[in-house]
């Protein structure tokens, strides 16, 4: 009974609150009445007419009336009048507009996220962001910045994420991120950076994610990752590296995810990934020049979970011991996904990788030679559709047929003595050929001599007779003289 009372009291209270809030929401709508598009907004009036304002749910717990203000796709080149909403604006999205220059941004003391992506910004006033003390995320991607003014982020000590992707940056000042001790995510993708200052990240101990992809980097300064002990994700893809900068990377002791795709390496070997003790994900895709992955290349990567080696148009050699150490030492084996799609590989012996033990393996679109050495591929993962779709390039009889449709008995080697190497097989072939030739030669000699003996038997007789005639003649001549 008491419980029921309590419950009905609760219900009544909820109802009252609901009615109050509904009538409270109705009021401003009637007062303003002019802007139909802002019906949803709790405070339609202060919102500039070309923008939409909604409650910023991300910070609603910590602030009283946080507003997310979106003014995208409005051809704006100057700031709308935000004076009425200034204090409560936590997110400002000005992406897809026509801003070419960023001057001082007025006191937006609660602004957390500032999105200026997809404009045509060529220049920024050095003090432009000085009055945004609580800014945490700034997105300047897809603009036309070829340089940044000195100290442009100087007062932004709360910044956690900076996106400078898709600009034309050719260099960075060594102190540009000095005041960002909370910086966690930095995107520098698709700029024209050829080198980086050695001390660029000296104060960014919390940097977790760094995207340097699609630049013109061919080396990194020795100690660039000296302070970034939190770095877990690094993207170096689409640069000009001809060797993996493994010594520099080794300083980022907690690196878990590395992408070195689309660089200039011709070969990867045991020096490429040393001391990356925490690496879990490695991507080596789209390497135009890569031909060879040598013995022991991945031997040190005890914690490797996922490896991608895809679309390398010249990669024909994956050495038998490339994964040596991972494949037999069970405490060192964590592979869950191996993707070798779209290379030029023709051979892979059973012991290279324990394919049957790895949950996801993609070997499709290579040049596999389906002989006795590749027979093992039939022995596991029969149900896995991706695994079944592997096709062979040779032998001709079973070329281009999915391995699921080929009988295991077809995986044969042309010359018997299956375990032998090519050299030994060649040697055997040579010996056999030599034997046959010797026999033929000897046979020929025997026939020849037999024949000769016979011919001499008859012909020699003739000759002797002729000789005798001749002799007789000579004698006659002599006798005549
Ligand atoms: C900010 O929100 C608070 C609480 O709703 C409100 O009292 C104040 O007037 C707002 N300030 C501005 C400038 O809109
Ligand atoms: C911004 O805030 C500072 C300090 O609170 C104040 O001195 C300055 O006048 C303000 N500027 C504007 C444009 O409101
Ligand atoms: C900024 O806006 C662009 C375009 O709308 C969007 O793709 C991007 O995710 C936004 N950035 C942030 C940090 O929210
Ligand atoms: C197997 O891996 C563990 C972990 O790295 C290592 O400590 C151990 O020495 C390895 N054992 C062999 C036989 O290589």
TrEMBL record:
<keyword id="KW-0812">Transmembrane</keyword>
<feature type="transmembrane region" description="Helical">
    <location>
        <begin position="426"/>
        <end position="450"/>
    </location>
</feature>
<dbReference type="Pfam" id="PF13855">
    <property type="entry name" value="LRR_8"/>
</dbReference>
<keyword id="KW-1133">Transmembrane helix</keyword>
<dbReference type="InterPro" id="IPR003591">
    <property type="entry name" value="Leu-rich_rpt_typical-subtyp"/>
</dbReference>
<keyword id="KW-0732">Signal</keyword>
<protein>
    <recommendedName>
        <fullName>LRRCT domain-containing protein</fullName>
    </recommendedName>
</protein>
<dbReference type="InterPro" id="IPR032675">
    <property type="entry name" value="LRR_dom_sf"/>
</dbReference>
<dbReference type="InterPro" id="IPR001611">
    <property type="entry name" value="Leu-rich_rpt"/>
</dbReference>
<keyword id="KW-0433">Leucine-rich repeat</keyword>
<keyword id="KW-0472">Membrane</keyword>
<feature type="signal peptide">
    <location>
        <begin position="1"/>
        <end position="24"/>
    </location>
</feature>
<keyword id="KW-0677">Repeat</keyword>
């Amino acid at each position: 009974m008491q419980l029921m009372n309590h419950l009905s009291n609760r219900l009544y209270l909820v109802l009252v609150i609901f009615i109050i809030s509904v009538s409270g929401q109705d009021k401003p709508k009637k007062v303003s009445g002019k802007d139909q598009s802002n019906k949803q907004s709790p405070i339609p009036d202060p919102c500039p007419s070309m923008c939409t304002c909604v409650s910023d749910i991300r910070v609603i717990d910590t602030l009283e009336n946080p507003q997310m203000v979106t003014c995208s796709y409005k051809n704006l080149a100057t700031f709308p009048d935000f004076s009425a909403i200034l204090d409560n604006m936590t997110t400002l999205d000005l992406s897809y507009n026509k801003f070419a220059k960023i001057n001082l941004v007025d006191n937006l003391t609660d602004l957390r996220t500032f999105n200026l992506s997809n404009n045509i910004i060529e220049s920024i006033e050095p003090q432009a962001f000085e009055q945004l003390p609580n800014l945490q995320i700034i997105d300047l991607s897809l603009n036309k910045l070829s340089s940044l003014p000195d100290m442009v982020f100087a007062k932004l000590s709360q910044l956690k994420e900076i996106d400078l992707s898709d600009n034309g940056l050719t260099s960075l000042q060594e102190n540009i991120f000095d005041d960002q001790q909370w910086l966690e995510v930095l995107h520098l993708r698709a700029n024209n950076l050829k080198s980086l200052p050695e001390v660029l990240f000296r104060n960014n101990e919390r940097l977790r994610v760094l995207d340097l992809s699609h630049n013109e980097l061919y080396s990194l300064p020795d100690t660039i990752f000296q302070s970034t002990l939190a770095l877990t994700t690094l993207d170096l893809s689409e640069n000009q590296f001809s060797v993996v900068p493994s010594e520099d990377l080794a300083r980022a002791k907690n690196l878990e995810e590395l992408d070195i795709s689309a660089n200039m390496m011709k070969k990867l070997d045991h020096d490429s990934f040393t001391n990356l003790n925490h690496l879990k994900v490695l991507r080596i895709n789209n390497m135009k020049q890569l031909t060879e992955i040598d013995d022991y290349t991945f031997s040190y990567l005890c914690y490797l979970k996922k490896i991608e080696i895809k679309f390398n148009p010249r990669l024909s050699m994956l050495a038998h011991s490339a994964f040596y150490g991972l494949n037999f030492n069970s405490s060192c084996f964590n592979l869950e996904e191996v993707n070798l799609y779209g290379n030029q590989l023709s051979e892979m012996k059973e012991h290279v990788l324990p394919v049957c033990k790895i949950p996801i393996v993609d070997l499709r679109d290579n040049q596999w030679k389906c002989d006795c050495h590749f027979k093992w591929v039939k022995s596991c993962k029969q149900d896995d559709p991706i695994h079944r779709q592997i096709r062979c390039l040779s032998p001709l009889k079973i070329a281009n047929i999915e391995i699921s449709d080929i009988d295991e008995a077809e995986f044969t080697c042309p010359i018997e003595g299956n375990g032998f190497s090519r050299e030994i097989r060649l040697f055997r072939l040579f010996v056999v050929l030599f034997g046959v030739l010797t026999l033929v030669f000897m046979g020929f000699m025997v026939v020849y001599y037999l024949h000769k003996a016979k011919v001499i038997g008859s012909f020699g007789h003739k000759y002797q007779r002729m000789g005798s005639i001749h002799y007789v003649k000579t004698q006659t001549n002599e006798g005549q003289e």
